[in-house]
Structure formats: structure tokens, C-alpha cells
Design brief:
The protein is built from 18 helices and eleven strands. With 499 residues, the chain is an alpha+beta fold. The two termini are 50 Å apart.
Length: 499
């Protein structure tokens, strides 16, 4: 009876998928693109059903573009991008600029003295006093949150941004009759940024690190996982950066990073909603042509070498135990990447998935289990991770053994056609559901443009999923799920280290 029910559900989902796939393919007709002479590319997804437009600016700059000393700078720049320009966020930029430059020079002196072999604490205290006086004076010329206020007064919603290992994304929505306001504001902050309130915002970011990492056991766990798994590649650093870097990055460092990575050729802008191609192109030429030209930043040539053996760490905390098991996996450009994505649905996605059923439903050994391919990013070879937390009376050791057995089973027993079909159908339905949202579809188009070289690859992923076979997944397990390719990080109850 159970098998019949599953088969009926699969048939039902397949019918839904067939109809959705037709609509999904027809979406391509609503997509248009153009590139300005400075190299800035625009992708437009038209939808004239409601008088709303959403805007996404995608910078090909994230944690993987950083280096020792400036880890965390992409995230700092993301925060500062909301602080305005020489026209927005100030009541007298001419006077403000002089003070900001004086603050930068004074901070360099403080930094130099603190790093001196013969540190003069009295001198540092005197310099810091002068610095604080300048900071208070500069604040007199700041019109706080003016960028945000202008948008809200004009019906703007959803103003936000996010920094990842591979990119930084900025987005918001406006009534479509305010599109020229968007063009003015968005082009300004990426052609005429001031990075005001830098030192004030840095304190906000430091507090964010304390909350997300220093005082959060799972945050520590993820940071240690990256440091353990990667010894050469920039994926080894948490996107928020170490506290020492946050303390020492200067406004001039941010300016230089901005000049290197926020060029027209290294950014892409997406627009969706009640906007016409001719209208967008005219505004783009008027406002965005002033963004400095530049080519797409070349991919990082540093390749993480193969591990020589299994790596593991235990963090002792007064918290709920956790376990993350990771295996090195290829980038999104590799043919095996989609196979890992299909494997997610077989192993942990859904109540009928193998590990969820075994660990959570049957044995009740875990409260949760999940997995993902491409952590912390997928522009470069990264990690396939499986994460879980034990139920009361069970241990991370038990969970690791169940996970290992589940992965080993993939190497010896072929996945059934029914199981594979179920995973593919559920995966496709989830993908198409995401694509039915204009914002979701636009994000997919932009990320594919940056990560794979063409936004059209967003429409070929379904075919790639369909080509994955049971033998592919069996070979995948044999190739990647090996001890020498494995990284394990656990959180255990404090006191366990004494045993």
C-alpha cells in the first residue's frame, strides 16, 4: 500500500512538474539584456502585472577575493554602501571630507604606535582622544540613514544586502514610476561612495561578530570547520573576518578594495517588474555610465590541494552537542556538482530521505539532519557537508557512525530507480517553485551569469538533473566519501575534554 501511495504521489508531482516546466521555459521570452560601454551588464525580467520593480546589484566580490590582513573587508564594504555619497547623507560634504581625511591620518598614527616595539601608551591615549573629538565633529555633518529614508518616503521596501564567500548582493523594490530614483541612488553609491561613519560602523560589525561567532557555539564550529578544511584557499576564512582584521582595516583599505572589485565589468545589475527595455537602457546610460570601467576579476588561481588524511576537531562548550561532517567537493562548473545536489534529496531532504528516516524518525538518535553541496561557496571547489544534532541520550559519535554507514552503503548498494526518481522530481519541483518568484528567478539568472558565465544556464539545470543516474551517485560516493577527504568538527559538552 505504501509503495502504491508513493507512486501516486510521484505521478501527481510529475504532472505538476510538466506544466510548470512549460511555463518555466517560456520565461526566457521575458528576459532581455544589454551591456554599457563601460562593461556594466543589465538583465531585465519583465512583468507588467503590477506597478512594482525590484532591483538587484550583484558584485563579483566576496570572502574568496580577500587575503590575510583584510579578511572581512567585503562585509565591511557592504555595510558602508548604505552610508551615502557626496550628495546623500551629508549636510556639508566639503567640511565633512576634510575631517574624514584627518581621522584616517590619525587612525594610521594610532595603529602604527600600537604595533610599535616600544609602545607609548600615553601617546596612544592622547591620539585616541583627538580621534574621538574629530569623530564627534564629523558626526555633525552626517544625515543619518538618508539613503534609507529617501527610499521609504517613495514607497521603497526590502532594502538589504548580503555578503557571501563568492559575491555581495544589494537589493530593494520601488513602485515602477520611481525607477529613475533607483537609478540615481544606486549608481551614486557605486560611483561616488563616501564610506562615512566607517569607524562607527566597524564597532557595529565587531558586535555582529561577537553575537554570530564569538558567543555562538555553532558560529565557532563553522569557523573552525573552514580553517580545518582549507589551508591554502581563501574559503578558509569566515566571511565576517577575524576580530584582529576588523580592528585594523582602514577606510583607505576599503577604498582600495572598492576600486579593485567594484568596477563596471565586475558587477551585474538585475531588474524585474514593470519596466521596459528601452526605458531601462536610457536610464542606465544616463546614470550608470559613470561607474569606472574594468574587466571581470579573474578567478582565484589558488587551488586547495588534496588532503593527506582525515581532519577532525572537538570544541568543548556548555551547549547542545553538534556534528558537521564535510567532504571536499568540486565547484559548480564541474559535472559532479549537480550529482551532489541530487544526493542531498536522497540522503537528508524530506522525511523519506535515508538519513532523516534512519536518524530522526526510526532511531530517534537525532533532532535534525541536513546537508548541502557548495559550502561555503560554489565558485571554487569547496565542501559537501552533513550536519546534525543528537537527541537526548544520544551522542555525536553515534550520529557520525550512522552517517558513515549511510555513505558507505551508497558505494555498495545501487540506489533504486524509485528513490532516484522521487529525489529528482522533488528537486525539480523545489527549483521551479523558486523560479515562479520574479525575485527568485532573477537571483538565479544573476548568480549563473557570475558563476557559470551565462544567465541562460539557469534554464539548463533541469536537464542536468535528469541525466544523473544511480551509477553516477555510486561512483560519486566511491570517489569523494573517503577518509582522506573527510573533515569532522564536533561540539561536545564542556568537561568531556577531561575524559
Amino acid at each position: 500500500m505504501k509503495k502504491i501511495l508513493i507512486s501516486l504521489i510521484l505521478i501527481f508531482l510529475t504532472f505538476i512538474l510538466a506544466g510548470s516546466e512549460f511555463n518555466f521555459n517560456s520565461v526566457k521570452d521575458r528576459v532581455s539584456e544589454f551591456t554599457l560601454p563601460n562593461g556594466l551588464k543589465f538583465i531585465l525580467l519583465e512583468d507588467h502585472s503590477v506597478p512594482i520593480a525590484s532591483f538587484v546589484t550583484y558584485a563579483n566580490a566576496g570572502g574568496s577575493d580577500e587575503r590575510i590582513g583584510i579578511y572581512g573587508i567585503s562585509h565591511i564594504l557592504e555595510h558602508l554602501a548604505f552610508k551615502g555619497t557626496s550628495e546623500i547623507g551629508t549636510n556639508n560634504y566639503k567640511k565633512e571630507r576634510k575631517i574624514l581625511n584627518s581621522m584616517d591620518r590619525l587612525f594610521d598614527l594610532i595603529k602604527s604606535e600600537k604595533n610599535s616595539f616600544h609602545q607609548d601608551k600615553e601617546k596612544i591615549a592622547e591620539l585616541e582622544k583627538k580621534f574621538e573629538a574629530l569623530r564627534e565633529e564629523a558626526q555633525k555633518y552626517v544625515v543619518s540613514n538618508e539613503f534609507d529614508s529617501i527610499l521609504k518616503k517613495n514607497g521603497g521596501v526590502g532594502l538589504n544586502a548580503g555578503t557571501g564567500a563568492d559575491s555581495t548582493v544589494y537589493f530593494f523594490s520601488l513602485p515602477s514610476n520611481k525607477i529613475e530614483l533607483w537609478a540615481y541612488l544606486e549608481s551614486g553609491r557605486f560611483s561616488d561612495p563616501v564610506f562615512r561613519e566607517f569607524y562607527k560602523e566597524r564597532e557595529v560589525i565587531k558586535e555582529e561578530r561577537r553575537v554570530r561567532v564569538d558567543n555562538q557555539p555553532v558560529g565557532k564550529m563553522i569557523e573552525e570547520l573552514l580553517a580545518l578544511a582549507f589551508k591554502d584557499h581563501a574559503y578558509k576564512a569566515n566571511t565576517i573576518g577575524p576580530m584582529s582584521n576588523i580592528n585594523n582595516i582602514t577606510r583607505n583599505d576599503v577604498k582600495q578594495y572598492f576600486r579593485n572589485y567594484y568596477t563596471a565589468g565586475n558587477m551585474i545589475i538585475g531588474v524585474t517588474g514593470d519596466v521596459y527595455p528601452e526605458q531601462l537602457k536610457k536610464l542606465a546610460e544616463k546614470y550608470f555610465s559613470k561607474i569606472p570601467p574594468g574587466n571581470r576579476v579573474l578567478r582565484n588561481t589558488t587551488i586547495e590541494p588534496p588532503q593527506l588524511g582525515e581532519k577532525r576537531m572537538i570544541i568543548y562548550e556548555d551547549s547542545q552537542p553538534w556534528i558537521i561532517t564535510g567532504y571536499h567537493c568540486p565547484s559548480i562548473l564541474h559535472e559532479d556538482f549537480v550529482k551532489f545536489s541530487v544526493l542531498d534529496y536522497i540522503m537528508t531532504n524530506g522525511r523519506s530521505s535515508r538519513l532523516y528516516k534512519k536518524m530522526v524518525t526510526d532511531d530517534k538518535a537525532a533532532l535534525f539532519v541536513g546537508s548541502m553541496a557548495g559550502f561555503p561557496g560554489n565558485k571554487y571547489p569547496s565542501l559537501y557537508i552533513i550536519f546534525s544534532l543528537p537527541n537526548m541520550g544520544h551522542t555525536t559519535g553515534e550520529l557520525e557512525k550512522i552517517i558513515e554507514d549511510g555513505l558507505d552503503k551508497l558505494k555498495t548498494e545501487k540506489i533504486t530507480e524509485e528513490e532516484l526518481k522521487s529525489a529528482k522530481v522533488r528537486m525539480k519541483v523545489a527549483l521551479i517553485k523558486q523560479m515562479t518568484s520574479n525575485r527568485g528567478l532573477l537571483s538565479s539568472l544573476l548568480s549563473n551569469e557570475i558563476l557559470t558565465g551565462s544567465w541562460e544556464n539557469a534554464f539548463t539545470y533541469l536537464k542536468k538533473i535528469e541525466k544523473v543516474t544511480a551509477d553516477d551517485l555510486k561512483n560519486l560516493a566511491k570517489d569523494y566519501f573517503t577518509l582522506s577527504n573527510k573533515v569532522v568538527v564536533k561540539i561536545e559538552k564542556k568537561g568531556g575534554e577531561k575524559k
